[in-house]
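User: I'm curious what two different proteins look like when written out as structure tokens. Can you demonstrate?

Assistant: Sure. I'll show them one after the other, since each token string lines up with its own sequence. Here's the first protein:
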Amino acid sequence: MNRVYVCSCFGITEQQVKQHADSGACSPRKLASACKAGTDCGSCVKRIQALLGRTATPVTQPAAAQLAATEEPMAEAA
């Protein structure tokens, strides 16, 4: 059996990510709650997002820029 690991820290495979997604863990946060994938070193988060179909920003963008792109802009003080 050929296993493709997504999260080396917790030994989570692509197949396990897909199984958790089919069971309702359809976001990186829900997946992390289900199996801890993405909660240690974080190097697998982009791959998890891709597997879940949630890559809204380019992979080459720094993490801070990705976070800023997903947050709603704050209203300016008058």
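Here's a second, unrelated protein for contrast:
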Amino acid sequence: MKKFETFTEWTTSFADQGCYDHINRMTAFDEWAGWPSCEALQTLQPDELKNLNNKTIQFVPQSAEQDYSAVAYEEYIYETGKVPTRAKSWHDIFGALSWCMFPNTKATINKLHYDDIKQLGTQNRSSLRNALTLFDECGVVLVTNNQTLLNALKQHQWQQAFIELRDLWHQPSADGVAVYQFGHANYEMLTKPYIGLTGKWLVIEASAEIAGLPLNVQYRMVDQKLATALKNGVLNDNSNLYPLPLMGVPKWLDANEDFSFYDNTDYFRPKSDK
């Protein structure tokens, strides 16, 4: 498996791939000329965002000397509304854009972390916090009622899910599936995609006809549904998260237009009996 790497200098040369279509359309990401400042990222917020402690979300510079633990990071955001953002960091840029595209969900994740830390302390990381972190970094949201497609994904029937049912992906139809990238680490790793790159999908069971609405409306609706699902405990542990080979998602990368791409069973692995 290729070791993950990303660009060290600013470029958006990778952003013409389909996996960046939504973020390009929502934030004009592919038009940026250089590393955005915190002030520039702030302008992308659809409204003045607040966390669930009624603090205004502000992207603030994080110096090289500052090193937040996961606990301190979540506590700091909840108590101040300030999101530490490192200069020239793909990870933090995409993290900030996630706040802009999924404000309710990001605020909910932050509060769930904060409440869990206050209740259980910092010594042992709970199954809730593990699941929230995994989804925050690597999550993909599928909106669909198509149980055939979902079962194919759960059973790692990749040929069925990605080839036989290919025309249903991104389709605004009753049996289609609408796809929304959430994890900011996914976006970072997709700058230089590699065999082995895998996200975690979570389903919102609703009609994919939502995909026929204007994109900003889609994101508002998905954000609200996702935040509600999190409040209702959908991620109390990892049991509702399933692996998704990101390079195999139809229309996300040119490489998978050749169906022989899916023959690589080191990447598109069959489901283990264990």
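A detail about the second structure: The first strand starts at residue 58 and ends at 62.
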